[in-house]
């Protein structure tokens, strides 16, 4: 990462220093031609399109057996630290996702600036000496944080981390210049954990080892349960209270269906587009097969995510992003309920529960279970 604390790799790019180290290593075995892979422009920065992926980087199908064995070994060390702390399995998952992004879960003796180790922690940022950080157990303890040194906040020091997506929990610790890079490693982390015999669903105290009383009143434990049930990454919380007077359908649907929606729905569409960027969205619909739906009432929108999220981690992550934003802003926008990935969240309940299809849809179907779109209904 490119802040004062850590260094991060994103999208398979390697720093110029890492490229030079790779070139030097390969030259020792006679692969001089690798020098052709790292041209530099006038600015002295590597041309990203010409750089090969780091071994095992996301998108690299040629992860070596040796690399995998090393990843499993380090994963077990990280999890052992978490287990001895009494942390839940999801703390291990966040740590594995972080280490995969930062170092490909390898104990590197180099990195951006003075970053080293599994999590690319920086001595200059107070994470400890090089010798300490290169100890995987020390590095894991430092990542999880708590009452003991070093000073930078670790995971247990982050208020509400269990209610965050795994990506955001990792980012809260790492403060990376690439804040959305960690989520892409969730499936890889789970695969490594399975090979290592790690139980990512075990319960625990999400603030174990923290100085002082943990925040909240047990909500984080509920959030951990909700996340484990919802395909990971979905944000839960408390019920959202508010008074939302009924509105008439008086505004042309801004998604271009030709129907009318309520002012509240139109305002939600405008804010969603501003906050989330370009969305494939449709609101009003006659819904002849389900006339009690909020769509013909102008109070609901469907946001398509581009395919079956059960078969694509990036599509699942996009749906999580949309659903989480709808939940997080419900108190300001008047969202009544959200359906996504076989789950339903309501403002009155405040948590995600399994979606049964409402007596109209087949919940295991890609559309009926809302695996290809996020449904948002407003008051």
TrEMBL record:
Residues 259-359 form the ARB-07466-like C-terminal domain. The chain crosses the membrane at residues 12-37. It comes from the Bacteria. Residues 205-237 are annotated as: Disordered. InterPro entries: ARB_07466-like_C. Keywords: Membrane, Transmembrane, Transmembrane helix. This is ARB-07466-like C-terminal domain-containing protein. It comes from Kribbella ginsengisoli.
């Amino acid at each position: 990462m490119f802040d004062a604390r850590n260094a991060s790799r994103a999208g398979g790019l390697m720093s110029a220093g890492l490229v030079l180290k790779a070139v030097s290593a390969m030259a020792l075995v006679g692969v001089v031609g690798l020098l052709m892979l790292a041209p530099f422009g006038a600015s002295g920065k590597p041309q990203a399109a010409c750089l090969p992926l780091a071994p095992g980087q996301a998108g690299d199908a040629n992860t070596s057996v040796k690399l995998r064995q090393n990843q499993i070994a380090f994963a077990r060390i990280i999890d052992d630290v978490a287990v001895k702390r009494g942390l839940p399995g999801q703390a291990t998952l966040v740590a594995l996702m972080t280490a995969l992004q930062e170092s490909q879960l390898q104990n590197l003796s180099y990195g951006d600036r003075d970053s080293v180790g599994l999590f690319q922690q920086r001595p200059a940022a107070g994470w400890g000496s090089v010798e300490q950080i290169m100890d995987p157990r020390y590095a894991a303890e430092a990542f999880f944080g708590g009452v003991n040194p070093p000073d930078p906040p670790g995971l247990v020091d982050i208020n509400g981390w269990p209610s965050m997506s795994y990506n955001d929990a990792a980012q809260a610790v790492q403060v990376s210049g690439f804040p959305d890079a960690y989520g892409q490693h969730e499936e890889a982390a789970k695969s490594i954990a399975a090979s290592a015999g790690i139980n990512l669903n075990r319960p625990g105290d999400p603030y174990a080892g923290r100085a002082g009383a943990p925040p909240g009143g047990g909500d984080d434990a509920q959030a951990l349960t909700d996340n484990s049930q919802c395909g990971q990454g979905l944000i839960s919380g408390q019920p959202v209270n508010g008074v939302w007077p009924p509105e008439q359908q008086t505004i042309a649907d801004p998604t271009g269906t030709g129907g009318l929606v309520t002012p509240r729905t139109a305002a939600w569409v405008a804010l969603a587009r501003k906050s989330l960027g370009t969305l494939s969205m449709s609101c009003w619909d006659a819904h002849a097969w389900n006339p009690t739906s909020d769509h013909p009432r102008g109070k609901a929108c469907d946001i398509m995510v581009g395919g079956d999220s059960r078969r694509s981690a990036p599509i699942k992550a996009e749906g999580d992003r949309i659903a989480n934003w709808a939940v997080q802003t419900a108190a300001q926008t008047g969202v009544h309920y959200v359906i996504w990935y076989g789950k339903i969240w309501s403002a009155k309940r405040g948590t995600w529960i399994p979606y049964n299809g409402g007596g109209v849809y087949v919940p295991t179907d890609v559309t009926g279970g809302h695996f290809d779109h996020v449904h948002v209904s407003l008051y």
